[in-house]
Specification:
single chain; Tetraspanin_EC2_sf; membrane; Tetraspanin_animals; Tetraspanin/Peripherin; elongated; 250 residues; 67% helix
């Protein structure tokens, strides 16, 4: 029992330290974005673009690290995945609401247009379709024809899924069900034996989780590198500022 408790505490402390590192990265990035201190002086050496890009990367990387590590802390202390399950459910719910109500409809509204563009980009790059689940889920590829406003009001071609759900080298007509071929996306779920080879069937939430888990070290490394760039910029700007003050004092 004592050994188990020690392992649990060590795991929690380890995740907490990573959480602190993530929050530090996030805070540093926000400080640089919000503050103009040294930005003009640094432009001659680093360039404003590099300086600000590093800050944005630090914010994104720090946020990802903080969220993942916080879940690790809570999971270690509770010895169960309830925290991850709760957070996962909330994220999936938000994704569903956005896709069902805003994707592909009323594109004159900037928010709906942004949601549509982000979903299309995500589905193409992550090779996914819909929100969550596999080929037999009503929340993956089938969410479009079953629940979405896009299918009811914004889909002039009467396609069953948007083009962004199709494989890069696939046939769009077959993928979207416009040729009437049996199988997905016309039939199902549940799906029998006719699974459309041109269509992505796995939800984007699942693919996004897999991507983050597979690239967490890379995200952390980029965040750390961004902090180094930012710290270098701060040190340089403070040194330059002191030099200017000394010259002006004479």
């Amino acid at each position: 029992m004592g050994t188990k408790g020690n392992i649990k505490c060590c795991a929690a402390v380890f995740h907490f330290l990573i959480f602190i590192a993530g929050v530090s990265s996030l805070s540093m990035g926000i400080y640089i974005i919000a503050s103009d201190y040294g930005a003009h002086q640094l432009s001659a050496v680093l360039g404003d673009e590099l300086y600000h890009v590093a800050a944005y990367i630090a914010i994104a990387g720090g946020t990802a690290i903080a969220i993942i590590s916080l879940c690790g802390v809570c999971g270690s202390l509770k010895e169960k995945k309830c925290v991850l399950v709760i957070m996962s459910g909330k994220i999936q719910k938000s994704m569903k609401i956005a896709l069902v109500n805003k994707y592909g409809v009323n594109l004159d509204h900037s928010e709906n247009r942004m949601v549509t563009e982000v979903w299309d980009l995500m589905q193409k790059n992550l090779e996914c379709c819909g929100v969550h689940g596999g080929v037999n889920s009503t929340d993956s590829w089938a969410i479009y024809k079953i629940k979405s406003q896009w299918y009811k009001h914004g889909n002039n071609r009467k396609a069953y899924v948007p083009d962004s759900c199709c494989r890069h080298d696939g046939d769009i007509i077959t993928c979207t069900g416009l040729n009437g071929t049996e199988g997905t996306p016309i039939d199902g779920p549940p799906v029998g034996g006719n699974v459309n080879p041109h269509l992505y069937h796995k939800g984007c939430y699942d693919e996004l989780v897999n991507y983050v888990q597979g690239h967490v070290l890379m995200i952390g490394g980029i965040a750390v590198a961004s902090i180094v760039v930012i710290l270098f910029g701060l040190i340089f700007s403070m040194s330059l500022y002191r030099s200017i003050r000394e010259v002006d004092s004479y």
